[in-house]
């Protein structure tokens, strides 16, 4: 956004800048927040939003019920309420990119529909500017400072929002939660695993993304509707869950000694790695 003219600005106007490579970006935090809330209001009026909301409510209810049943069966003394947490990776520069803004607006609506406190939603993208971080903090979200590369273990029911992220991010997330206990406690809204498999050569898919490859046949995948005018934003999106009964179909050896993904053969890995600034 270009600088304002010499006219006086309101005292509550917050204008931040950050260096993204060689480009200086100026983010009018008030304006970005207002536009974001308007986008959320517009999305809420879209017919497909109601389907997204209802699908997520049903999936999270099942997730929480499984969690509480498992805790009760194990007679755990540390049996929490099953309150959902949320983790979001890969929104991109939502202040300048319409897709990122719509995806963030949808996240805001879903958090409200699922009764997840904004402070219980952690967000990260290495491209976030200081101004965008200020917007995220203002709407109540928790901005992570460390690039986890998707390697976040779910210690309680967790909703992962991973819109149009690279396969490595999903693969890392699955690896970090590679047990029947942890996988049954996560829900993903993101790219269809079946779609990933169809678009990737089998040999490469099985070698480089073996956790996605192994779980695709047994995960529960419900595709979410996407209107034709929003294909760039919400296409190929599904609700992915991992019911224990389906995970039991995999052999016990599947779960033994899962090794951390390395991606040594991947030339176009769509993830910003920790301690690195370029996409490799």
UniProtKB/TrEMBL annotation:
Domain of life the protein comes from: Eukaryota
InterPro entries associated with the record: SRR1-like, SRR1L
Cellular component aspect of the GO annotation: cytoplasm; nucleus
Name of one Pfam family that matches: SRR1
Domain called SRR1-like: residue spans: 80-239
Membrane-spanning parts: none
Family in the record: Belongs to the SRR1 family.
Protein name, per record: SRR1-like domain-containing protein
Organism in which the protein naturally occurs: Knipowitschia caucasica
């Amino acid at each position: 956004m270009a600088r304002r003219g010499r006219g006086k600005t309101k005292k509550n106007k917050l204008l931040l800048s950050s260096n993204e490579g060689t480009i200086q970006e100026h983010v009018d935090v008030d304006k970005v927040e207002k536009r974001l809330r308007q986008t959320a209001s517009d999305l809420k009026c879209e017919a497909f939003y109601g389907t997204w909301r209802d699908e997520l409510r049903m999936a999270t209810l099942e997730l929480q019920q499984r969690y509480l049943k498992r805790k009760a069966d194990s007679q755990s003394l540390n049996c929490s309420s099953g309150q959902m947490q949320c983790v979001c990776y890969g929104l991109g520069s939502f202040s300048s990119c319409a897709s990122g803004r719509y995806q963030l607006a949808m996240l805001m609506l879903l958090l409200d529909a699922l009764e997840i406190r904004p402070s219980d939603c952690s967000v990260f993208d290495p491209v976030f500017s200081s101004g965008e971080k200020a917007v995220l903090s203002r709407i109540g979200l928790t901005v992570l400072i460390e690039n986890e590369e998707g390697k976040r273990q779910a210690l309680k029911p967790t909703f992962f929002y991973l819109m149009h992220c690279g396969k490595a991010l999903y693969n890392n997330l699955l690896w970090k939660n590679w047990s029947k206990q942890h996988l049954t406690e996560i829900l993903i809204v993101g790219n269809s695993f079946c779609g990933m498999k169809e678009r990737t050569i089998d040999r490469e898919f099985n070698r480089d993304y073996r956790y996605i490859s192994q779980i695709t046949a047994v995960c529960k995948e419900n595709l979410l509707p996407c209107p034709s005018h929003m294909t760039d934003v919400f296409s190929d999106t599904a609700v992915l869950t991992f019911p224990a009964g389906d995970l039991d179909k995999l052999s016990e050896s599947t779960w033994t000694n899962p090794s951390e993904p390395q991606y040594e053969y991947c030339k176009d890995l769509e993830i910003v790695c920790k301690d690195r600034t370029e996409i490799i």
